[in-house]
Design a protein that fits this description.
mainly alpha; abc type-2 transporter like fold; 72% helix
Length: 384
Amino acid sequence: MQAFKLYFKIFKRSAFFMVLLYLLIFGLIVALFALNFKSSSDMGFEAQRSRIAVVDNDNSKFSKAFASYINENSQPVELGTGEQAIKDALFFNDADYIIIIPKGFGEDFLKDGNARPQSYSLPNSMRAVYAQRMAESYLKLFDLYIKSGNFSFEQAKENVEADLALKTKTSIVSINKSDTGSLKRTVDYVAYAITCMVILSVSLTMLAIEKGDAKKRNLASPISASKIGLQVFLGNAVVSLICCGMIILLVIAIFREDFFNIYGAWYSLNILIYTLVCLGMSFLIGNLVPKNAVNAVCNVIALGGSFLGGAFVPQSLLSETVKNIAVIDPIFWFVKANNEILSISTFNLKTLSPALYCMLVQLLFAALFFSAAMLAIKYKRTKS
């Protein structure tokens, strides 16, 4: 294992500092994010009333009653006009839930009770979930009173508001303060940290081995080139797993008990699979890119991929065009797998299928990168 030992000597000298730097940066970001979430969740439910924007394009008697109830039981948010105003309100975290009441909504609803307004919600927000339930409860209960035929519109309105006021007292205590969505968003950010850490550590170490005294020592060694290559690859794998382990331990240290559940286990598996993707990517970069260009390539892949794939911007806010382009980005499938895991309430093969599919796509990316790297190695040896 002479080449394996040499690998770690060079790793300590050429890439270890960069790994610690990115780990520190990621740790600070996650710590600030977690502290902000915990401080807001400890303020109590009344301080955390959902921020809801209601746009009433109907102005009927029913739509006014519905909008009035929502505004009285939330923090009303003023919203501009147009689709961009909706996206901006969600992206800049100005609103948790947005309700757009179309023309004719009141008349349609009073006919059969099936009409529903358009709605947009902040991804992974418990307040958005509560807002959606509050609106749906009002509509369903109002429909029951109207269909009974025993109440006028005003009587139905008064009874609905009275009933929901009683239900509110019992429903608040059932809401869990720990929001798994905050953990999920943190795991999304992992994509950037893992990409940088693995690409820089593996690529820089490989390039250092291929140059100067290290290469001369390997050429003079009685060990065959294939065995040296295998030991270098094992070094790459061990370093990648160390990076993966440090990231997971950091997330555990910050979230603690919130991580020790079935969600945390599946997030960990997804991180491990994405680490294999980064290992294959780094192996390819180490065989194609010169040393002075590795940092630039790493930044383009990590930053560009994180924005395009939804690690920094929630995928629900990305346009369909961007999503169609992002399918070529492994980070897109990593984040999509996290989204699918978060959406599961009961874990079984059927509910896990979408997440497993995303993980399979990531493994195919890893296989593609490894295959391309092997072709690059074969070409270099043939050329030399």
